[in-house]
Amino acid sequence: MSLVLLTELCVFSLTLAAFSTPLIEAEEGDDAILQCLLDPVVDVSESPVTWSKDDAKDMVHVYIRGRDRASDQKEFTNRTSLNHEGLRRGNVSLRLSSVRRADSGTYTCYIQRLDTYCHTGLKVVARGQLIRPRGVSLNVTPSLDVPKAETPDNENETGCDVKYTVISIFLGVLGAVILLILGTFMTCKKIQEKMERKVATRTTNTEMQSLSGGHPTNGAGNPQEVV
């Protein structure tokens, strides 16, 4: 029972650690990364993965049985890619090539094996209108192994708070499970010792009766006189 509980707890902690990323801005024609990074790292290469846009109204990318399935794509055909090696390291980020103004919206990644969601927003502006320095969350490499985009301090703190809260919950439940196991062990040990004492007492009485010729004995162990 304890092993099953710990396994479910580990999966639960992974689910919470895949939190949302800030809004990404890109100019028309650029490539953008829709980030989804698992912490701690877990291999999800065998899990179905789906990227969708605006509450699953538009299917962006589907990965199943180790392959990308383009049949479900519409406006995103031949413009998305997942790095399969990255999936083994918990990197489920999606590269969206040659972004358009119509690509602006909210994107959701669903990892079926962990029942985990990642959310990120994309805002596409006309050429030359991007305010932040170009290159942030853009111009990705094929491996998709790029640093996370800079985020405001409060957003970074939120991510850290989620991570450490999960660790605290894990340690608390683990401690409770250990105490439960120890308590059960001590209880069983006391019951066993009590039963052993009863058996020893019965054995002693039986031996004393045998020595007294089968006559019942008094409290001192001497045969009682039969009137």
UniProtKB/TrEMBL annotation:
This is Butyrophilin-like protein 3 isoform X3. GO terms for molecular function: signaling receptor binding. Residues 199-227 are annotated as: Disordered. Residues 201-212 have a biased composition (Polar residues). It is found in: Membrane. PANTHER family: BUTYROPHILIN, ICOS LIGAND. Residues 25-112 form the Ig-like domain. InterPro entries: Ig-like_dom, Ig-like_dom_sf, Ig-like_fold, Ig_sub, Ig_sub2, Ig_V-set, IgSF_BTN/MOG. The gene is LOC121202166. One of its GO terms (biological process) is regulation of leukocyte cell-cell adhesion. The chain crosses the membrane at residues 164-188. It comes from the Eukaryota. PROSITE patterns: IG_LIKE (PS50835). Residues 1-17 form the signal peptide. Coiled coil: none annotated. It comes from Betta splendens (Siamese fighting fish). Keywords: Disulfide bond, Glycoprotein, Immunoglobulin domain, Membrane, Signal, Transmembrane, Transmembrane helix. GO terms for cellular component: external side of plasma membrane.
